[in-house]
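To fix ideas, we quote verbatim a fold written out as tokens:
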Amino acid sequence: MTSPAVPQPPDDLLPATRRALLRRLAVAQAEGRAPSVVGAVVRDGRLVWTGSRSCVDGHAPDADTQYRIGSITKTFTAVLVMRLRDEGLLDLGDPLEKHLPGTGVGDSTVFQLLGHSAGLAAETPGAWWERTPGTLRPTLADVLGEEPMRHTPGRRHHYSNPGYTLLGSLVEALRGAPWEEVLRREVLEPLSLDRTTARPVAPYAGAWAVHPWADVMLPEPAVDLGLMAPAGQLWSTAADLCRFAVFLAEGDDRVLSAASVREMATPSTPPEPEEGAGGYGLGLQLIRRDGRALVGHGGSLPGFLAGLWVSVADGVAAVALANATGGPLVGPLATDLIAIVADAEPRIPEPWRPLPGVDPALLELTGPWYWGTQAVALKLVADGGVELYPLRGGGRGSRFEARPDGGWTGLDGYYAGETLRVVRRADGSVRHLDLGSFVFTREPYDPEGDVPGGVDAEGWRGLRP
């Protein structure tokens, strides 16, 4: 099978960087003994590198060749659920029973299902669902079995494939259309993911297992997963997944706002000890590699491995795909591709520019403040937001976005979700800042700042002889 020509990405990377990327990909294919591996890197929203290696001379796949992406499908399903939330059709705290009655696990919430903390079993009962047709599991009862729960909902992260089947059925119930149709209409078409499909469309890679102790291969079945499709059905390409990675970094108001995408990348439960730093958000895995925070997802089905990771801070994302049941570690391959580009060619910051204008009343609030004796600084940022950060040593700091009432809401850190507001005197002058009941004054324990508990009338003093 001959793949159609794919335009080569612009020559944005240095030759040494491009060689390092190709070598890393080649090592993964050779040492992982994979029939083929494809990789791609996107930087600042543009595809800047693609590469591939194959065991067949002159027959390497390219960024337009479809591979099955397994559980990366879950991220697409999570986007559909978040769209329902943003439209007001559900709340993440809703029990499943409210929208999808009769499952027997309806006490679990939508939030818990998205973050794999609903307590459900990891797999379906019966035959290995990834290698058997979905016709063997025609109903949700077949997917869940007689004992679907393994843990108390909300207590711990326990990855569950049936949980995402339930979310797919939830989407179908609220949209009144099949999951595949809703996905195509609401996500794939707006993002121009034309080569992401529920069933393979040529050119696509064949599914193979490689013998662990001999250099021989065995074809793997590529079955339709039926009701389990929202957990792992999709086929996609390196180029399409790079476009999806840009969406996961920036959002797209045609599909999901940047704020909702950031919410998906916020940890929903603490990680299990063996998982290390990171955890799971809402349809997104969160990891750290060499000090770099990454969001994305891995995927596997018999005959295929897939990894998609994004470093938002670096503006770099990478995709790695292989057509082998096991062998090449495509997740580390994708994260290494990010590191190669981000370390060899660090992001060049945008030029500093002054704000287009500033309210003198806001400018008056900038500079040092004191919470008790701890010195912090308030700084204006773009879009009317502010930053509050400690001036010496460690301490609590956060970014805040402006509220319509003139205050600010915390975006991260200790004060995430908390309200910062200005408390003024009768004459309009600033008395102090209030942040979740904490009082910040211009001087340490300023007696005119309405400090809780009051300030000793004798004021500051030295050691008396």
Confidence is low (pLDDT under 50) at residues 1-8. The radius of gyration is 26 Å. The first helix runs from residue 15 to 32. Residues 277 and 291 are 10 Å apart (CA to CA).
